[in-house]
Write a structure and sequence with these properties.
The chain is of the alpha+beta class. Helix content is 40%, strand content 21%. It has three domains: 162 residues, Alpha-Beta Plaits (2-Layer Sandwich); 57 residues, DNA polymerase, domain 1, CATH 1.10.150; 151 residues, DNA polymerase, Y-family, little finger domain (Dna Ligase, domain 1, 2-Layer Sandwich).
Length: 397
């Protein structure tokens, strides 16, 4: 049976929940996020606000200048998490292979479910129907032979869309699209491809693979494979993963050390939470660093004992980062962190007399996990400026 992957992406999720709870907001431009008087950023811009140039991750003060009549609302993570849990429970009714990407999107592998539930397109339609019936929210869904195509398909007909890409129509769908639709091609990457007179995915597909490899290395090979619709990555729930990671591609290369450390700390906290959620611990920490010319480095360190403690993972990740920065620092367009060498928590070897610091760190992780589960992972974070090496004190949440 042909492989079929579904990508479910909730439409303007935070804004949609606010409209659900306050019907008088329907049709109005909404900006959900931090305080505009400080350094708050936009978590979600409603569809009505987007024509004015508002988008997520934009400074809230900028968004308000672009759309001064927008309604600005704070983030209510407890309510969003409540509905997210309800949505993921629906997805798990259709397949045991559900890979969360964020609070409001996920992949499902329904290849083996089609004999029981019908064709993948039918399953996708049922997912949309039940989500709307049980939550009164809409989802855009893509169906395709792989993850890249499924995610791309879900974005083609928003909101409330359902788009299927088959093996037969891959190139008809991909070829006219801008090259920036490929995962990993941001504004800087698009400019590099424009130097080769490449503006569309179809033009990229027709370039010789060797030319892209010689000019861009692994990134060029990655883009060429996706331009041909090839993506072999499996849908992997965290509980089955060989590694758990988090990475971010920046709109522009980042040259500020402290900004990069803050991003790295966020990655470490999220990875540590996912480890604990799955009852796992990790032995190896790996950083992924990509420069503006697409040169990609990896740097890793293996710990003496596996761990799921945020502080231990952070100290290791920062040690790797600082060692790289001290020798080869350049602005980055991508920064990622991965924990591997996974095993069960029961396999951790604890000392006979576990020191007070270790116990305190585990209690701190329990507290922050509880807050993040209720209010969302951005509700609490650690300050990257304070570390044990610098203060001899534990980091504070």
């Amino acid at each position: 049976m042909p492989r079929r992957i579904i990508h479910v992406d909730m439409d303007e999720f935070f804004a949609a929940v606010e409209k659900l709870d306050r019907p008088e907001l329907a049709g109005k431009p909404l900006l959900i996020g931090g305080d505009p008087r400080g350094r708050g950023v936009v978590s979600t811009a409603s569809y009505e606000a987007r024509p004015f140039g508002c988008r997520s991750a934009m400074p809230m003060s900028t968004a308000i200048r672009l759309c001064p009549h927008a309604v600005v609302l704070p983030v209510r993570y407890d309510r969003y998490r409540q509905l997210s849990n309800q949505i993921f429970a629906i997805l798990e009714q259709f397949s045991p292979l559900v890979e969360p990407l964020s609070i409001d999107e996920a992949f499902l592998d329904v290849t083996g479910c089609q004999r029981l539930l019908g064709p993948a397109e039918h399953i996708a339609a049922e997912i949309k129907r039940i989500i709307r019936q049980e939550t009164q929210l809409t989802a855009s869904v893509g169906v395709a032979p792989n993850k890249f195509l499924a995610k791309l398909a879900s974005d083609l007909r928003k909101p409330d869309g359902l788009v299927a890409i088959s093996e037969e129509n891959v190139h008809n769908v991909l070829d006219p699209l801008p090259a920036s639709k490929i995962w990993g091609v941001g504004p800087a990457g698009a400019k590099e491809l424009e130097k080769l007179n490449v503006c569309t995915i179809g033009q990229l597909r027709l370039l010789p693979e060797k030319m892209l490899a010689d000019r861009f290395g692994d990134w060029g090979l990655h883009c060429h494979r996706l331009a041909r619709g090839i993506d072999d990555r499996p849908v992997t729930p965290d509980s089955q993963a060989k590694s758990i990671g988090q990475e971010e591609t920046f709109p522009q290369d980042v040259a500020e050390m402290e900004e990069l450390r803050a991003v790295l700390l966020g990655h470490v906290q999220e990875v540590a939470r996912r480890l604990r959620r799955q009852g796992l611990s990790a032995r190896t920490v790996t950083l992924k660093l990509r420069y503006g010319d697409f040169t990609t480095l990896t740097r890793a360190k293996t710990l003496p004992e596996p761990t799921d403690v945020t502080d231990t993972l952070w100290q290791t990740a920062r040690e790797i980062f600082d060692a790289w920065a001290g020798r080869n620092f350049r602005p980055l367009r991508l920064l990622g962190m991965t924990a591997s060498g996974l095993g069960g928590q029961a396999g951790r070897q604890l000392g006979l007399f576990q020191d007070d610091r270790q116990k305190m760190q585990e209690r701190l992780d329990e507290a922050t996990d509880s807050i993040a589960e209720r209010f969302g992972r951005k509700a609490i974070t650690r300050g990257p400026a304070r570390t044990d090496a610098e203060t001899n004190d534990p980091p504070t949440a």
